[in-house]
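Subgroup meeting minutes
Present: P.N., E.W., G.H.
Scribe: E.W.

1. P.N. recapped why we're keeping a running log of single-chain structure predictions: easier to compare across weeks, and new members can see raw inputs and outputs side by side.
2. G.H. added today's entry (384 aa).
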Amino acid sequence: MLLYLSIATIILSIVLIVFNWKNNFNAIYLAFFFILVSVFGIAHYYMIYGQSAFWLALFYNNFAPFMFLLGPFLLFYIRGSIENKQTLYKKDWIHFVPALLAIIGTIPYYLTSFDEKITIANRIMSNVDNVATIEVNLFYNAGWSFALRCTLAFIYLVYCIRLVWKLSNALPSKQFLDHYLWLVVLLSNILFINTSFLFLALQSAYDTTYENIAYGQVFYLFAGIGFCFLSFSLILFPNILYGIPKHLPSVEIKKEKKVKKEVKVDPEEDPFYEMSKSIADYLVREKSFLNTDFKIEDLAKELKHPLSHVEYCFTYLLETKFSKYITKLRLNYVKEVIDLENGTLLNSKALALQSGFKSTNKLKNSFEKQFGLPLENYIEQVKS
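Output recorded in log:
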């Protein structure tokens, strides 16, 4: 199951990249994080349960240096979401140093022929304790590699939890609650996984690899459960998967503020602001709303935008429901027609059909509610 779950998570991560590449680069960091976690899961599967020397040779140690990027990618995503910032700071280069040193130390292993790696894989499959005799890095052995990666990831995780905890001091508006909940779910699952592997890393200092696997089954079980929830969380929060940029309220993370306050985000800073403008312009220009059965799904199809993106624009940028927005456009159209015809040769039923309303009563009630004047009175007013 671990293998299939890891592959599925990689596929979902690719979807995350495709839908967010232009609009929300913070999500790309999250996708890279998920891909690295999945690769780690695949490598563990083939080392412990797999029966293929080829796949073990392909995954064992080749990707280990990049696991030092788990913490940085998580930090970039969490911090970027909180600060509404999609670019890195100049000093962020320092986060790549551990991975760079690990890559340098792994160069001799990278230069090893694949046939030799197949031999190493067969040794591991025959006796997993042979891992301790394999030179995986110039600077440390396999046990230290595992421990360092888990410890560094834990340090980053604690810092990210601190950032989100500070965010709770600012009362998010309704717009941000689901994104805030997503961050809590994400970090909770990662904490569950990382803590399990941290215990395994500490245990490896005293036991052989075989004993560590045998005695640490409960930790592997906990980590597996956490990984399942982590993978399925992308499905539980499809707005994250399809790239709705629900920015969290900007909070200065260096300042402690105990006073709760409502924080609003400038709509023009939203990556989908231009899309919301194009939607509004398109509806006025094409007048698709005159179709009685016009739905938001039809609009998304006409514009060739994901439905979730269009829904986001109406809810958070145009700040209204799609149905209310369409009704307003129809009423403005009715008013324009009446003004253009000077109120002559017009009746309520014809106006309702022409403007996209399903019934005359719906038109009359909406018109009076919008303009504070009965439809018939307005027609007579224009005539006179």
